[in-house]
Amino acid sequence: MSEGMREQVRRRYAEAVRSVGEGGSCCGGGSGCGASETGAFEVDLSGGGYSEGEKQQLPRAAVEASLGCGNPVALATLSPGEVILDLGSGGGIDVLLSARRVAPGGKAYGLDMTDEMLALARENQREVGVENVEFIKGQIEDIPLPDDHVDVVISNCVINLSTEKERVIQETFRVLKLGGRFAVSDVVFLGDKGGLPEELVRNVELWAGCVSGALEKSEYEALLSSAGFEDVSVEVTNVYDPETVFGEGRRDEIEALRRVPAASAFIRARKPESW
Question: Which residues sit opposite 269 in a β-bridge?
Answer without folding.
Answer: 182
